[in-house]
Amino acid sequence: MLVSFYQSELIEAGCDEAGRGCYAGPVFAAAVILPKDFHHPLLNDSKQLSEKHRDELRPIIEKEAISFAVASVCNEEIDRINILKASFKAMHLALDELKEKPQLLLIDGNRFIAYKKIPHHCFVKGDGRFASIAAASILAKTYRDEYMYQLHHQFPQYGWNKNKGYGTLVHRKAIEEFGLCDHHRKSFKLLPEQPAFF
Q1: 3-state class of 167 per DSSP?
Q2: Cys staple from 136: which of 16, 36, 121, 186, with CB 3.0 to 4.6 Å?
Q3: Could you read off the pLDDT of 3-30 as tens digits, one per residue?
Q4: What is the pLDDT of residues 89-135, one digit of tens each?
Q5: Model pTM greater than 0.90?
Q6: Which residue range(s) make up the domain with 67?
Q7: Strand order in the sheet with 104-108
Q8: Phi, psi angles (nearest 5°) of residue 71
Q9: What is the CATH number of the domain that holds 22?
Q10: Cα–Cα distance measured from residue 141 to residue 135, given in angstroms and rounded to the nearest whole number
Protein backbone atom coordinates (compact mmCIF):
# COMPACT_ATOMS: atom_id res chain seq x y z
CA MET A 1 0.00 0.00 0.00
CA LEU A 2 1.52 3.30 -1.12
CA VAL A 3 1.76 6.17 1.33
CA SER A 4 0.81 9.54 -0.16
CA PHE A 5 3.48 11.55 1.65
CA TYR A 6 6.42 11.18 4.01
CA GLN A 7 5.33 14.33 5.88
CA SER A 8 2.77 17.08 5.36
CA GLU A 9 4.57 20.40 5.97
CA LEU A 10 7.10 20.55 3.11
CA ILE A 11 6.65 20.25 -0.66
CA GLU A 12 7.97 16.79 -1.55
CA ALA A 13 9.37 15.56 -4.85
CA GLY A 14 9.81 11.85 -5.49
CA CYS A 15 12.77 10.78 -7.66
CA ASP A 16 13.59 7.52 -9.40
CA GLU A 17 15.64 6.26 -12.33
CA ALA A 18 15.25 3.62 -15.03
CA GLY A 19 17.84 1.68 -16.99
CA ARG A 20 20.66 1.55 -14.48
CA GLY A 21 21.44 -2.12 -15.17
CA CYS A 22 21.09 -1.98 -18.96
CA TYR A 23 23.83 -2.86 -21.43
CA ALA A 24 22.80 -0.10 -23.83
CA GLY A 25 21.12 3.29 -24.00
CA PRO A 26 20.86 6.19 -21.56
CA VAL A 27 19.78 6.13 -17.94
CA PHE A 28 16.57 8.12 -17.42
CA ALA A 29 15.31 9.75 -14.22
CA ALA A 30 12.14 11.56 -13.23
CA ALA A 31 11.11 13.92 -10.44
CA VAL A 32 7.45 14.32 -9.52
CA ILE A 33 5.54 16.57 -7.11
CA LEU A 34 2.02 15.25 -6.55
CA PRO A 35 -0.95 17.12 -5.07
CA LYS A 36 -1.88 16.17 -1.51
CA ASP A 37 -5.10 14.47 -2.60
CA PHE A 38 -3.64 12.47 -5.52
CA HIS A 39 -4.72 8.84 -5.60
CA HIS A 40 -4.97 6.24 -8.32
CA PRO A 41 -5.77 2.56 -7.69
CA LEU A 42 -3.20 1.34 -10.25
CA LEU A 43 -0.29 3.44 -8.99
CA ASN A 44 2.61 1.25 -7.87
CA ASP A 45 6.32 0.60 -8.43
CA SER A 46 6.70 0.54 -12.24
CA LYS A 47 8.34 -2.92 -12.07
CA GLN A 48 5.12 -4.33 -10.57
CA LEU A 49 2.98 -2.97 -13.41
CA SER A 50 2.35 -4.20 -16.93
CA GLU A 51 3.48 -2.03 -19.83
CA LYS A 52 -0.20 -1.34 -20.57
CA HIS A 53 -0.82 -0.03 -17.03
CA ARG A 54 2.37 2.08 -17.06
CA ASP A 55 1.29 3.65 -20.37
CA GLU A 56 -2.19 4.25 -18.94
CA LEU A 57 -0.80 5.95 -15.82
CA ARG A 58 1.75 8.20 -17.53
CA PRO A 59 -0.70 10.81 -18.96
CA ILE A 60 -2.66 10.78 -15.69
CA ILE A 61 0.49 11.53 -13.66
CA GLU A 62 1.54 14.24 -16.14
CA LYS A 63 -1.91 15.86 -16.03
CA GLU A 64 -2.42 15.67 -12.24
CA ALA A 65 1.12 16.37 -10.98
CA ILE A 66 1.86 19.83 -9.60
CA SER A 67 5.16 19.51 -11.45
CA PHE A 68 7.13 16.75 -13.16
CA ALA A 69 10.27 16.45 -15.23
CA VAL A 70 12.22 13.68 -16.97
CA ALA A 71 15.91 13.76 -17.91
CA SER A 72 18.54 11.37 -19.21
CA VAL A 73 22.30 10.83 -19.30
CA CYS A 74 23.72 9.14 -22.41
CA ASN A 75 25.79 5.97 -22.56
CA GLU A 76 29.01 7.88 -23.37
CA GLU A 77 28.68 9.90 -20.17
CA ILE A 78 27.80 6.75 -18.22
CA ASP A 79 31.13 5.33 -19.47
CA ARG A 80 32.94 8.51 -18.43
CA ILE A 81 31.57 9.04 -14.92
CA ASN A 82 30.12 5.56 -14.03
CA ILE A 83 26.50 4.46 -13.85
CA LEU A 84 25.87 5.45 -10.23
CA LYS A 85 27.01 9.06 -10.75
CA ALA A 86 25.12 9.15 -14.06
CA SER A 87 21.92 8.04 -12.28
CA PHE A 88 22.32 10.84 -9.72
CA LYS A 89 23.11 13.34 -12.47
CA ALA A 90 19.93 12.37 -14.35
CA MET A 91 17.94 12.93 -11.14
CA HIS A 92 19.60 16.33 -10.64
CA LEU A 93 18.80 17.29 -14.26
CA ALA A 94 15.15 16.31 -13.74
CA LEU A 95 15.01 18.33 -10.51
CA ASP A 96 16.46 21.34 -12.38
CA GLU A 97 13.44 21.27 -14.70
CA LEU A 98 10.71 21.25 -12.03
CA LYS A 99 8.55 24.36 -12.25
CA GLU A 100 7.85 24.26 -8.51
CA LYS A 101 10.80 24.09 -6.14
CA PRO A 102 10.61 21.11 -3.75
CA GLN A 103 11.59 21.46 -0.09
CA LEU A 104 12.23 17.76 0.50
CA LEU A 105 13.36 14.97 -1.84
CA LEU A 106 12.32 11.34 -1.56
CA ILE A 107 14.89 9.22 -3.39
CA ASP A 108 14.49 5.61 -4.45
CA GLY A 109 17.58 3.65 -3.39
CA ASN A 110 20.13 3.75 -0.60
CA ARG A 111 22.42 6.57 -1.80
CA PHE A 112 22.21 10.02 -3.34
CA ILE A 113 24.41 13.03 -3.99
CA ALA A 114 22.79 16.02 -2.28
CA TYR A 115 20.95 18.36 -4.64
CA LYS A 116 21.61 22.03 -3.91
CA LYS A 117 20.67 22.54 -0.25
CA ILE A 118 17.42 20.60 -0.34
CA PRO A 119 17.22 17.85 2.31
CA HIS A 120 16.61 14.32 1.07
CA HIS A 121 15.72 10.89 2.38
CA CYS A 122 16.71 7.64 0.64
CA PHE A 123 14.36 4.67 0.69
CA VAL A 124 15.26 1.18 -0.50
CA LYS A 125 12.31 0.05 -2.65
CA GLY A 126 10.83 3.52 -2.14
CA ASP A 127 8.91 3.14 -5.42
CA GLY A 128 6.74 0.58 -3.63
CA ARG A 129 6.27 2.82 -0.58
CA PHE A 130 5.61 6.41 -1.66
CA ALA A 131 3.23 7.66 -4.36
CA SER A 132 5.60 10.36 -5.67
CA ILE A 133 8.49 7.90 -6.11
CA ALA A 134 6.16 5.37 -7.78
CA ALA A 135 4.98 8.12 -10.15
CA ALA A 136 8.60 9.05 -10.91
CA SER A 137 9.46 5.40 -11.57
CA ILE A 138 6.60 5.15 -14.09
CA LEU A 139 7.65 8.31 -15.95
CA ALA A 140 11.34 7.34 -16.04
CA LYS A 141 10.50 3.83 -17.26
CA THR A 142 7.96 4.84 -19.94
CA TYR A 143 10.17 7.62 -21.34
CA ARG A 144 13.15 5.27 -21.47
CA ASP A 145 11.16 2.47 -23.09
CA GLU A 146 9.93 4.90 -25.73
CA TYR A 147 13.52 5.96 -26.44
CA MET A 148 14.67 2.33 -26.76
CA TYR A 149 11.80 1.57 -29.16
CA GLN A 150 13.11 4.38 -31.39
CA LEU A 151 16.67 3.04 -31.24
CA HIS A 152 15.37 -0.42 -32.09
CA HIS A 153 14.41 0.79 -35.58
CA GLN A 154 18.07 1.67 -36.25
CA PHE A 155 19.49 -1.47 -34.57
CA PRO A 156 16.81 -4.19 -34.82
CA GLN A 157 19.35 -7.00 -34.37
CA TYR A 158 19.59 -6.41 -30.59
CA GLY A 159 15.87 -6.79 -29.85
CA TRP A 160 15.62 -3.51 -27.91
CA ASN A 161 11.88 -3.33 -28.62
CA LYS A 162 11.57 -6.30 -26.23
CA ASN A 163 14.57 -6.15 -23.87
CA LYS A 164 14.96 -2.32 -23.76
CA GLY A 165 18.75 -2.73 -23.58
CA TYR A 166 18.84 -5.19 -20.68
CA GLY A 167 21.18 -8.17 -20.91
CA THR A 168 18.72 -10.84 -22.00
CA LEU A 169 19.89 -13.96 -23.82
CA VAL A 170 18.71 -12.52 -27.17
CA HIS A 171 20.65 -9.30 -26.54
CA ARG A 172 23.82 -11.12 -25.39
CA LYS A 173 23.76 -13.44 -28.40
CA ALA A 174 23.28 -10.45 -30.73
CA ILE A 175 26.30 -8.72 -29.15
CA GLU A 176 28.39 -11.86 -29.76
CA GLU A 177 27.20 -12.05 -33.37
CA PHE A 178 27.15 -8.38 -34.39
CA GLY A 179 29.49 -6.76 -31.83
CA LEU A 180 28.81 -3.54 -29.94
CA CYS A 181 27.21 -0.43 -31.43
CA ASP A 182 27.52 3.27 -30.51
CA HIS A 183 24.74 2.97 -27.92
CA HIS A 184 26.32 0.20 -25.85
CA ARG A 185 27.93 1.02 -22.50
CA LYS A 186 31.54 0.10 -23.16
CA SER A 187 32.49 0.36 -19.47
CA PHE A 188 30.16 -2.57 -18.74
CA LYS A 189 31.67 -6.03 -19.36
CA LEU A 190 29.42 -7.14 -22.21
CA LEU A 191 31.67 -9.67 -23.96
CA PRO A 192 33.93 -12.33 -22.37
CA GLU A 193 36.99 -11.20 -24.37
CA GLN A 194 36.17 -7.49 -24.22
CA PRO A 195 39.26 -5.36 -23.47
CA ALA A 196 39.20 -3.04 -20.43
CA PHE A 197 37.51 0.25 -21.25
CA PHE A 198 39.88 2.44 -19.25
Answers
A1: coil
A2: 16
A3: 999 999 999 999 999 999 999 999 999 9
A4: 999 999 999 999 999 999 999 999 999 999 999 999 999 999 999 99
A5: yes
A6: 12-178
A7: 67-73, 27-33, 12-18, 104-108, 120-123
A8: -140, 165
A9: 3.30.420.10
A10: 10
